[in-house]
Protein backbone atom coordinates (compact mmCIF):
# COMPACT_ATOMS: atom_id res chain seq x y z
CA UNK A 1 0.00 0.00 0.00
CA UNK A 2 3.02 2.27 -0.37
CA UNK A 3 2.01 5.77 -1.51
CA UNK A 4 -1.65 5.24 -0.59
CA UNK A 5 -3.32 7.84 1.62
CA UNK A 6 -6.84 7.55 3.13
CA UNK A 7 -9.62 10.07 2.69
CA UNK A 8 -8.88 11.57 6.10
CA UNK A 9 -5.61 11.62 7.98
CA UNK A 10 -4.67 12.93 11.40
CA UNK A 11 -1.82 15.23 12.40
CA UNK A 12 -0.39 15.16 15.91
CA UNK A 13 1.42 18.45 16.50
CA UNK A 14 3.82 18.54 19.46
CA UNK A 15 6.08 21.42 20.53
CA UNK A 16 9.69 20.27 20.94
CA UNK A 17 10.56 20.49 24.66
CA UNK A 18 7.89 23.14 25.05
CA UNK A 19 8.87 24.83 28.31
CA UNK A 20 12.55 24.95 27.33
CA UNK A 21 11.76 26.17 23.80
CA UNK A 22 9.37 28.85 25.02
CA UNK A 23 11.82 29.99 27.71
CA UNK A 24 14.51 30.22 25.02
CA UNK A 25 12.25 32.37 22.85
CA UNK A 26 11.45 34.59 25.83
CA UNK A 27 15.15 35.07 26.67
CA UNK A 28 15.94 35.95 23.06
CA UNK A 29 13.10 38.48 23.10
CA UNK A 30 14.65 40.01 26.23
CA UNK A 31 17.94 40.45 24.36
CA UNK A 32 19.85 37.45 25.72
CA UNK A 33 22.32 36.53 22.92
CA UNK A 34 22.50 32.88 24.03
CA UNK A 35 19.87 30.43 22.79
CA UNK A 36 19.06 28.09 25.67
CA UNK A 37 18.34 25.32 23.18
CA UNK A 38 21.96 25.30 22.07
CA UNK A 39 23.60 24.96 25.51
CA UNK A 40 23.14 22.59 28.48
CA UNK A 41 20.05 24.14 30.11
CA UNK A 42 16.89 23.19 31.92
CA UNK A 43 13.65 24.72 33.10
CA UNK A 44 13.25 23.91 36.77
CA UNK A 45 13.54 25.25 40.30
CA UNK A 46 15.76 27.80 41.94
CA UNK A 47 19.47 27.45 41.02
CA UNK A 48 20.75 29.04 44.25
CA UNK A 49 18.48 27.04 46.57
CA UNK A 50 18.92 23.94 44.39
CA UNK A 51 15.26 23.06 44.85
CA UNK A 52 12.64 21.84 42.42
CA UNK A 53 12.62 19.34 39.59
CA UNK A 54 13.59 19.37 35.92
CA UNK A 55 10.50 20.33 33.92
CA UNK A 56 12.23 20.47 30.53
CA UNK A 57 15.75 20.09 29.16
CA UNK A 58 17.75 21.06 26.09
CA UNK A 59 19.28 18.47 23.77
CA UNK A 60 22.82 19.34 25.02
CA UNK A 61 21.58 18.81 28.62
CA UNK A 62 20.16 15.43 27.63
CA UNK A 63 23.66 14.34 26.55
CA UNK A 64 24.73 14.62 30.21
CA UNK A 65 22.09 12.08 31.19
CA UNK A 66 19.72 14.67 32.61
CA UNK A 67 16.11 13.48 32.58
CA UNK A 68 12.78 15.23 33.05
CA UNK A 69 11.42 14.85 36.59
CA UNK A 70 14.73 14.46 38.42
CA UNK A 71 15.74 16.97 41.14
CA UNK A 72 17.53 20.06 39.92
CA UNK A 73 20.32 19.32 42.41
CA UNK A 74 20.93 15.94 40.74
CA UNK A 75 21.01 17.59 37.31
CA UNK A 76 23.58 20.12 38.53
CA UNK A 77 25.78 17.30 39.80
CA UNK A 78 25.75 15.78 36.32
CA UNK A 79 26.53 19.13 34.70
CA UNK A 80 27.88 21.84 37.07
CA UNK A 81 27.78 24.44 34.27
CA UNK A 82 24.10 23.79 33.62
CA UNK A 83 21.95 26.89 33.05
CA UNK A 84 18.77 26.76 35.14
CA UNK A 85 15.75 28.88 34.20
CA UNK A 86 12.65 29.17 36.36
CA UNK A 87 9.29 28.37 34.75
CA UNK A 88 7.04 31.16 33.45
CA UNK A 89 3.63 29.54 33.08
CA UNK A 90 1.88 32.76 32.07
CA UNK A 91 4.25 33.12 29.12
CA UNK A 92 3.87 29.43 28.24
CA UNK A 93 0.09 29.76 28.06
CA UNK A 94 0.53 32.82 25.85
CA UNK A 95 2.69 30.83 23.42
CA UNK A 96 0.24 27.93 23.54
CA UNK A 97 -2.65 30.24 22.61
CA UNK A 98 -0.62 31.69 19.73
CA UNK A 99 0.09 28.20 18.40
CA UNK A 100 -3.52 27.02 18.57
CA UNK A 101 -4.86 30.26 17.08
CA UNK A 102 -2.37 29.98 14.23
CA UNK A 103 -3.46 26.44 13.43
CA UNK A 104 -7.09 27.52 13.46
CA UNK A 105 -6.31 30.32 11.00
CA UNK A 106 -5.02 27.63 8.65
CA UNK A 107 -8.67 26.65 8.29
CA UNK A 108 -8.38 23.52 10.45
CA UNK A 109 -10.25 22.18 13.44
CA UNK A 110 -8.08 21.00 16.33
CA UNK A 111 -8.39 18.90 19.45
CA UNK A 112 -6.06 20.43 22.01
CA UNK A 113 -4.97 17.77 24.50
CA UNK A 114 -2.38 19.75 26.50
CA UNK A 115 -0.64 23.10 26.56
CA UNK A 116 1.86 21.96 23.91
CA UNK A 117 0.10 19.40 21.72
CA UNK A 118 -3.01 18.90 19.65
CA UNK A 119 -4.57 16.68 16.99
CA UNK A 120 -5.77 18.01 13.64
CA UNK A 121 -8.00 16.11 11.20
CA UNK A 122 -7.20 16.83 7.54
CA UNK A 123 -8.32 15.51 4.18
CA UNK A 124 -5.97 13.88 1.73
CA UNK A 125 -5.95 17.06 -0.37
CA UNK A 126 -5.48 19.61 2.47
CA UNK A 127 -6.77 22.32 0.11
CA UNK A 128 -4.27 25.05 -0.71
CA UNK A 129 -1.56 23.37 1.39
CA UNK A 130 -1.21 20.28 -0.78
CA UNK A 131 -1.11 16.60 0.30
CA UNK A 132 -0.64 15.78 4.01
CA UNK A 133 3.15 15.54 4.04
CA UNK A 134 3.54 18.84 2.20
CA UNK A 135 0.88 20.52 4.36
CA UNK A 136 2.53 19.34 7.57
CA UNK A 137 5.90 20.71 6.46
CA UNK A 138 4.29 24.04 5.63
CA UNK A 139 2.55 24.20 9.03
CA UNK A 140 5.79 23.27 10.82
CA UNK A 141 7.85 25.88 8.98
CA UNK A 142 5.13 28.50 9.44
CA UNK A 143 5.14 27.96 13.20
CA UNK A 144 8.91 28.48 13.38
CA UNK A 145 8.79 31.53 11.11
CA UNK A 146 6.01 33.20 13.10
CA UNK A 147 6.90 32.24 16.66
CA UNK A 148 10.53 31.09 16.77
CA UNK A 149 10.00 27.59 18.22
CA UNK A 150 9.86 24.20 16.53
CA UNK A 151 7.34 21.38 16.49
CA UNK A 152 7.23 17.77 15.39
CA UNK A 153 4.23 16.59 13.38
CA UNK A 154 3.16 12.97 13.18
CA UNK A 155 0.86 11.90 10.32
CA UNK A 156 -1.37 8.82 10.31
CA UNK A 157 -4.84 7.45 9.78
CA UNK A 158 -5.04 6.61 13.51
CA UNK A 159 -4.65 8.96 16.50
CA UNK A 160 -2.33 6.68 18.45
CA UNK A 161 -0.05 6.19 15.45
CA UNK A 162 0.05 9.94 14.76
CA UNK A 163 1.07 10.44 18.40
CA UNK A 164 3.88 7.89 18.12
CA UNK A 165 5.03 9.28 14.77
CA UNK A 166 5.52 12.71 16.33
CA UNK A 167 7.85 11.08 18.89
CA UNK A 168 10.22 9.82 16.20
CA UNK A 169 13.45 11.73 15.52
CA UNK A 170 13.39 15.29 16.91
CA UNK A 171 13.41 18.27 16.67
CA UNK A 172 11.66 20.10 13.82
CA UNK A 173 10.62 16.95 11.93
CA UNK A 174 7.59 15.51 10.13
CA UNK A 175 7.05 11.73 10.16
CA UNK A 176 4.36 9.44 8.80
CA UNK A 177 3.18 6.25 10.48
CA UNK A 178 0.16 4.94 8.57
CA UNK A 179 -1.42 1.62 9.50
CA UNK A 180 0.37 -0.09 6.62
CA UNK A 181 3.75 1.27 7.76
CA UNK A 182 3.80 -0.12 11.30
CA UNK A 183 5.59 -3.38 10.42
CA UNK A 184 8.51 -1.45 8.96
CA UNK A 185 8.62 1.65 11.16
CA UNK A 186 7.09 0.62 14.49
CA UNK A 187 7.62 -3.07 15.11
CA UNK A 188 11.47 -2.99 15.23
CA UNK A 189 11.40 -0.47 18.13
CA UNK A 190 11.82 -1.53 21.78
CA UNK A 191 8.48 -2.23 23.44
CA UNK A 192 9.27 0.58 25.90
CA UNK A 193 8.78 3.05 23.00
CA UNK A 194 5.13 2.08 22.63
CA UNK A 195 2.69 4.78 23.68
CA UNK A 196 1.33 4.13 27.20
CA UNK A 197 3.96 1.46 27.91
CA UNK A 198 5.65 2.64 31.10
CA UNK A 199 8.80 1.31 32.73
CA UNK A 200 6.89 -1.20 34.84
CA UNK A 201 4.98 -2.60 31.84
CA UNK A 202 8.19 -2.80 29.81
CA UNK A 203 9.92 -4.78 32.57
CA UNK A 204 7.04 -7.25 32.71
CA UNK A 205 7.10 -7.64 28.93
CA UNK A 206 10.87 -8.24 28.97
CA UNK A 207 10.41 -10.96 31.60
CA UNK A 208 7.82 -12.55 29.33
CA UNK A 209 10.26 -12.54 26.39
CA UNK A 210 8.66 -9.58 24.60
CA UNK A 211 11.36 -7.08 23.71
CA UNK A 212 10.10 -5.24 20.65
CA UNK A 213 6.78 -3.75 19.65
CA UNK A 214 6.67 -6.38 16.91
CA UNK A 215 7.04 -9.15 19.50
CA UNK A 216 4.00 -7.78 21.31
CA UNK A 217 2.00 -7.26 18.11
CA UNK A 218 2.51 -10.87 17.05
CA UNK A 219 1.86 -12.38 20.49
CA UNK A 220 -1.37 -14.24 21.24
CA UNK A 221 -3.87 -11.56 22.40
CA UNK A 222 -5.66 -13.95 24.77
CA UNK A 223 -2.38 -14.77 26.48
CA UNK A 224 -1.46 -11.09 26.70
CA UNK A 225 -4.79 -10.23 28.30
CA UNK A 226 -4.49 -13.17 30.71
CA UNK A 227 -1.04 -12.14 31.89
CA UNK A 228 -1.22 -8.34 31.58
CA UNK A 229 -4.95 -7.65 32.07
CA UNK A 230 -6.82 -4.89 30.24
CA UNK A 231 -3.79 -2.60 29.96
CA UNK A 232 -1.86 -5.36 28.21
CA UNK A 233 -4.73 -5.81 25.76
CA UNK A 234 -4.73 -2.06 25.05
CA UNK A 235 -0.99 -2.08 24.38
CA UNK A 236 -1.38 -5.11 22.10
CA UNK A 237 -3.99 -3.18 20.12
CA UNK A 238 -1.72 -0.12 19.89
CA UNK A 239 1.15 -2.33 18.71
CA UNK A 240 -1.12 -3.48 15.89
CA UNK A 241 -2.22 0.05 15.04
CA UNK A 242 -5.75 -0.49 16.36
CA UNK A 243 -7.36 2.76 17.49
CA UNK A 244 -10.74 4.07 16.38
CA UNK A 245 -10.71 7.09 18.69
CA UNK A 246 -12.05 10.11 16.78
CA UNK A 247 -10.54 13.58 16.82
CA UNK A 248 -12.90 15.56 19.03
CA UNK A 249 -12.80 19.16 17.87
CA UNK A 250 -15.60 20.38 20.15
CA UNK A 251 -14.93 20.24 23.89
CA UNK A 252 -17.24 17.98 25.86
CA UNK A 253 -19.29 19.40 28.70
CA UNK A 254 -17.02 19.71 31.70
CA UNK A 255 -17.42 17.02 34.33
CA UNK A 256 -15.20 18.99 36.67
CA UNK A 257 -13.20 22.19 36.93
CA UNK A 258 -9.84 22.28 38.63
CA UNK A 259 -6.48 23.97 38.83
CA UNK A 260 -3.06 22.81 40.02
CA UNK A 261 0.46 24.14 40.13
CA UNK A 262 3.92 22.59 40.28
CA UNK A 263 5.84 24.67 42.80
CA UNK A 264 9.18 26.23 41.87
CA UNK A 265 10.46 25.31 45.35
CA UNK A 266 9.16 22.72 47.80
CA UNK A 267 6.60 24.04 50.28
CA UNK A 268 7.13 22.97 53.89
CA UNK A 269 4.93 25.43 55.82
CA UNK A 270 1.16 25.24 56.28
CA UNK A 271 0.64 28.98 55.76
CA UNK A 272 2.54 28.89 52.45
CA UNK A 273 0.43 25.98 51.25
CA UNK A 274 -2.73 27.87 52.20
CA UNK A 275 -1.60 30.86 50.14
CA UNK A 276 -1.16 28.61 47.10
CA UNK A 277 -4.57 27.01 47.68
CA UNK A 278 -6.13 30.47 47.93
CA UNK A 279 -4.84 31.38 44.46
CA UNK A 280 -6.03 28.05 43.07
CA UNK A 281 -9.46 28.53 44.64
CA UNK A 282 -9.72 31.94 42.99
CA UNK A 283 -8.96 30.41 39.61
CA UNK A 284 -11.45 27.57 40.09
CA UNK A 285 -14.18 29.87 41.40
CA UNK A 286 -13.71 32.32 38.54
CA UNK A 287 -13.98 29.52 35.97
CA UNK A 288 -17.09 28.11 37.65
CA UNK A 289 -18.80 31.50 37.58
CA UNK A 290 -17.74 32.13 33.99
CA UNK A 291 -19.23 28.80 32.89
CA UNK A 292 -22.40 29.32 34.95
CA UNK A 293 -21.75 26.21 37.06
CA UNK A 294 -21.91 25.26 40.73
CA UNK A 295 -19.65 22.65 42.33
CA UNK A 296 -21.04 19.94 44.58
CA UNK A 297 -17.69 18.44 45.61
CA UNK A 298 -14.19 19.82 46.15
CA UNK A 299 -11.00 17.78 46.24
CA UNK A 300 -7.57 18.87 47.47
CA UNK A 301 -4.58 17.17 45.84
CA UNK A 302 -1.00 16.99 47.11
CA UNK A 303 2.10 15.62 45.38
CA UNK A 304 5.05 15.33 47.75
CA UNK A 305 8.71 15.86 46.87
CA UNK A 306 8.99 12.06 46.92
CA UNK A 307 6.45 12.06 44.03
CA UNK A 308 3.86 10.30 46.21
CA UNK A 309 0.38 11.70 45.49
CA UNK A 310 -2.60 11.88 47.86
CA UNK A 311 -6.02 13.52 47.70
CA UNK A 312 -9.05 14.10 49.90
CA UNK A 313 -12.52 15.26 48.89
CA UNK A 314 -15.75 16.37 50.53
CA UNK A 315 -19.21 17.37 49.32
CA UNK A 316 -20.69 20.79 50.00
CA UNK A 317 -24.02 20.91 51.80
CA UNK A 318 -25.33 22.83 48.80
CA UNK A 319 -23.40 23.47 45.52
CA UNK A 320 -21.23 26.62 45.40
CA UNK A 321 -19.15 28.77 43.09
CA UNK A 322 -17.88 31.34 45.63
CA UNK A 323 -14.12 31.55 45.99
CA UNK A 324 -14.30 31.79 49.78
CA UNK A 325 -16.37 28.62 50.12
CA UNK A 326 -14.00 26.67 47.86
CA UNK A 327 -10.90 28.04 49.59
CA UNK A 328 -12.08 27.30 53.13
CA UNK A 329 -13.01 23.70 52.40
CA UNK A 330 -9.88 23.08 50.30
CA UNK A 331 -7.66 24.35 53.14
CA UNK A 332 -9.56 22.29 55.70
CA UNK A 333 -9.06 19.19 53.56
CA UNK A 334 -5.37 20.05 53.21
CA UNK A 335 -4.98 20.26 56.98
CA UNK A 336 -6.58 16.85 57.37
CA UNK A 337 -4.47 15.33 54.59
CA UNK A 338 -0.96 16.82 54.91
CA UNK A 339 1.59 14.68 56.76
CA UNK A 340 4.17 17.46 57.12
CA UNK A 341 6.38 16.32 54.22
CA UNK A 342 7.76 18.73 51.60
CA UNK A 343 5.19 19.50 48.89
CA UNK A 344 5.96 19.73 45.17
CA UNK A 345 2.45 20.21 43.70
CA UNK A 346 -0.91 21.41 44.99
CA UNK A 347 -4.26 21.20 43.26
CA UNK A 348 -7.97 21.87 43.77
CA UNK A 349 -10.52 19.96 41.73
CA UNK A 350 -14.29 20.38 41.77
CA UNK A 351 -16.85 17.88 40.51
CA UNK A 352 -20.57 17.06 40.48
CA UNK A 353 -21.19 20.28 38.58
CA UNK A 354 -24.69 21.67 38.11
CA UNK A 355 -26.03 24.73 36.34
CA UNK A 356 -26.67 27.82 38.44
CA UNK A 357 -30.39 27.54 37.71
CA UNK A 358 -30.61 23.86 38.68
CA UNK A 359 -32.87 23.36 41.75
CA UNK A 360 -30.93 22.06 44.75
CA UNK A 361 -32.01 20.54 48.04
CA UNK A 362 -31.62 23.10 50.83
CA UNK A 363 -31.61 22.69 54.58
CA UNK A 364 -34.27 24.40 56.71
CA UNK A 365 -31.67 27.01 57.69
CA UNK A 366 -31.02 27.88 54.04
CA UNK A 367 -34.57 28.50 52.90
CA UNK A 368 -34.84 32.16 53.90
CA UNK A 369 -31.43 33.61 53.10
CA UNK A 370 -29.54 31.18 50.84
CA UNK A 371 -30.36 33.06 47.65
CA UNK A 372 -29.39 36.42 49.12
CA UNK A 373 -26.12 35.03 50.51
CA UNK A 374 -25.25 33.58 47.11
CA UNK A 375 -25.83 36.96 45.44
CA UNK A 376 -23.71 38.75 48.04
CA UNK A 377 -20.83 36.27 47.63
CA UNK A 378 -20.97 36.64 43.85
CA UNK A 379 -20.88 40.44 44.15
CA UNK A 380 -17.96 40.13 46.58
CA UNK A 381 -15.97 37.87 44.25
CA UNK A 382 -16.65 40.17 41.31
CA UNK A 383 -15.52 43.19 43.36
CA UNK A 384 -12.32 41.42 44.46
CA UNK A 385 -11.53 40.46 40.85
CA UNK A 386 -12.15 44.04 39.70
CA UNK A 387 -9.84 45.49 42.39
CA UNK A 388 -7.10 43.00 41.58
CA UNK A 389 -7.27 43.79 37.88
CA UNK A 390 -6.79 47.46 38.72
CA UNK A 391 -4.28 47.30 41.60
CA UNK A 392 -2.58 43.93 41.23
CA UNK A 393 -3.01 40.33 42.33
CA UNK A 394 -1.80 41.02 45.92
CA UNK A 395 -4.15 43.93 46.59
CA UNK A 396 -6.62 41.73 48.48
CA UNK A 397 -6.59 38.30 50.08
CA UNK A 398 -9.43 36.08 51.26
CA UNK A 399 -9.60 35.40 54.99
CA UNK A 400 -9.47 31.73 55.88
In short:
The chain is built from 13 helices and twelve strands.
Give structural attributes.
5-stranded mixed beta sheet; alpha+beta; globular; 400 residues
Shape: globular
Within the largest sheet, what's the order of strands? 5-6-1-7-8
Low-pLDDT residue spans: 363-370
How much β-strand is present in the residues? 15-25%
Count of DSSP helices?
13
Our measurement of the CA-to-CA distance between the termini, rounded to an integer number of angstroms, reads 65 Å
Radius of gyration: 24 Å
- Classify the secondary structure makeup into a structural class: alpha+beta
Residues in helices, as a percent range: 40-55%
Mean pLDDT: 86
Question: What is the N-to-C order of secondary-structure elements (H for helix, E for strand)?
Answer: EHEEHHEHEEHEHEHHHHEHEEHEH
Strand count, sense and closure of the main sheet?
5 strands, mixed
> How many distinct beta strands?
12
Kindly describe this structure.
The protein is α+β, with helices and mostly antiparallel strands. Mean pLDDT is 86; it is low at 363-370. The relative contact order is 0.09. The longest helix has 22 residues, at 270-291. The radius of gyration is 24 Å and the shape is globular. The strands form 3 sheets. It has a 5-stranded mixed β-sheet. Strands 9-12-10-11 form a 4-stranded antiparallel β-sheet. The protein has a 3-stranded mixed β-sheet with strand order 3-2-4. The protein has 13 helices and 12 strands. It has helices spanning 18-29, 59-62, 72-78, 89-105, 132-147, 159-166, 182-185, 199-207, 213-217, 221-239, 270-291, 323-337, 370-391; strands at 8-15, 41-43, 56-57, 83-85, 111-114, 117-123, 151-156, 174-176, 256-267, 293-304, 309-320, 343-355. Helix 11 (270-291) packs antiparallel against helix 12 (323-337). The chain is 40% helix and 21% strand.
